[in-house]
Design goal:
Blueprint (H helix, E strand, L loop, with lengths): L1 H30 L2 H5 L2 H14 L4 E4 L2 E5 L5 E5 L7 H14 L6 H32 L2 H30 L14
Antiparallel strand pairs: 1-2, 2-3
Helix pairs in contact: 1-6, 3-5, 4-5, 5-6
Length: 184
């Protein structure tokens, strides 16, 4: 039942997150943030090629482009735009920090949550782009585009659910009132 409830919640949030991403994109373009973000893309492309190599997908990167080869040896060229690097998911996790981190939590716990959240989101974005490339190499470009457009958003929403569940259970544990925590 929990899995069904989480799936329903993720599907209900999909239009909200997609619309929010579009709003962030238009703001970034209006502020001229697209050019600085595009400079990050070649580094991310090389990291994605490294991840693909770990799972046995033959790939190579050059600037904002990278190439994956399918099982038959056919080459698929993919372009990573500044808008595909996952900066929106970093904004989303940042917004979630505003509501998830309260002043009642110790500073050390809040810092841990922020560091884990940022690192996890960056790793998720690399895995998401690598998954798009792996789908292009194994299934085809059409399914890869579909996954890019919708699967990536579902991954981010799922990550946020899992992240905050983990954080609330293991890091932001409330100390019952009347008791104190001994730090050695």
């Amino acid at each position: 039942m929990t899995l069904i409830a989480l799936t329903c919640a993720m599907l209900m949030l999909l239009p909200l997150v997609t619309t929010f991403n579009d709003l962030l994109t238009s703001w970034a373009m209006g502020l001229g943030a697209d050019n600085p973000l595009q400079t990050i893309v070649p580094v991310e492309a090389r990291m994605v090629v490294g991840l693909l190599g770990l799972v046995g997908v033959h790939a190579a990167a050059s600037g904002s482009y990278f190439v994956v080869w399918d099982g038959a040896g056919a080459m698929h060229t993919l372009f990573i735009s500044w808008n595909c690097i996952g900066w929106q998911s970093l904004v989303l996790v940042g917004v979630s920090f505003l509501s998830g981190l309260r002043a009642s939590h110790p500073l050390e716990a809040r810092v841990q949550v922020v560091l884990i959240g940022i690192a996890g989101t960056m790793l998720l974005n690399l895995v998401r782009v690598a998954a798009v490339a792996a789908i292009a190499a194994t299934v085809g470009v059409g399914p890869a585009v579909f996954f890019h457009d919708y699967g990536g958003t579902l991954l981010v929403i799922g990550f946020l659910f899992a992240f905050w569940t983990f954080v609330q259970r293991w890091i932001l544990v409330d100390v019952p009132s009347g008791e104190f925590e001994v730090v050695v």
